[in-house]
Amino acid sequence: MFSWLAARSPLLCRRALRLLASRRIRRITPHTLISALPGLGSVLYLHAASKDAPPNASASGLLVAQPAFAPLLNAHWLVAVSVVTDDGPREWCECLDHLGRVRARWHLLPDTDYLAWDALTAPCVPCSITFPSIDMQPLHPDRASVVNFRVREIAGMLLLEQDTYTALSPLGDRIAARIAHAESTVLQS
Q1: Cα dihedral 72→25→93→78 (10° resolution)
Q2: How far apart are CA 70 and CA 15, in angstroms?
Q3: CA nearest 41: which of 165, 188, 174?
Q4: How far apart are the C-alpha atoms of 148 and 43, rounded to whole Å?
Q5: Beta bridge partners of 150
Q6: Which of 29, 80, 133, 150 has a CA that sits 20 to 30 A from residue 17's CA?
Q7: How far are the Cα atoms of 43, 147, 150, 152 from residue 164, in angstroms, in the given order?
Q8: What is the pLDDT of residues 118-128, one digit of tens each?
Q9: Which domain of life is it from (predicted)?
Q10: What is the pLDDT of residue 141?
Q11: What is the mean pLDDT of the chain?
């Protein structure tokens, strides 16, 4: 069904014209986001190392095992983006901080649980809020990795970590590599 996605030249996702991309937004708390992420299954996770945005103090009771997940502690907005590229349809979510800066992004893959994806993005409404910083400071990811999120409770706190099991289908693996290439970043295994 998705084989035609991997057979064509990539159009850079982050350079998609804003008019052609469908953007829907919802207000979200770090607790809500982190609780929903494990249900997604395998996603392509991109982030940029940022020294100017320490974890949000209001994210009490939350911990992250990997520094790459720290931007999720600053979640104030979730933006669901859909665009049709030369490769076919692409969907991803962006995590925005309180200033509207993109801190992390994860892409839908053929191996992602589509029902969990829909449950996370269904409350999103068409974007009527203007965040000038999205256009001025787009996410320039340092690395990309295929992730299965896992949440554990430790001493009354929720710990977000990467599950050790991250298996992708051959199609999912090719699409993840093409998206990472389109984002000009390295796909870690």
Answers
A1: 10
A2: 25
A3: 165
A4: 7
A5: 161
A6: 29
A7: 14, 9, 9, 13
A8: 999 999 888 76
A9: Bacteria
A10: 77
A11: 81
What's the DSSP call for residue 55?
Answer: P
Q: Which alpha helices (H) appear in 9-136, and where do they start and end?
A: 30-36, 114-121, 132-136
Q: Report how far residue 47's alpha carbon sits from residue 80's, in angstroms, rounded to the nearest whole number.
A: 16
For residue 63, the cross-strand partners are 159
* Length of the chain, in residues: 189
Beta carbons of 81 and 21 less than 8 angstroms apart: yes
| DSSP string covering 74-137 | G--EEEEEEEEETTEEEEEEEEE-TT--EEEEEE--TTB-HHHHHHHHTT-EE--S--HHHHHS
Q: How far is CA 96 from the centre of its chain?
A: 10
At 184, which amino acid appears? S
- 113 burial (CB, 10 Å; 0-12 / 13-18 / 19+) is middle
Give the integer Cα–Cα distance in Å for 145 and 180.
Answer: 9
* Amino acid (1-letter code) at residue 12: L
180 pLDDT higher than 80: yes
Mean pLDDT of 162-169: 84
Alpha helices in 22-136 (DSSP H): 30-36, 114-121, 132-136
Range with lowest mean pLDDT among 3-7, 50-54, 158-162: 3-7
CB atoms under 10 Å from CB of 188, counted, come to 12
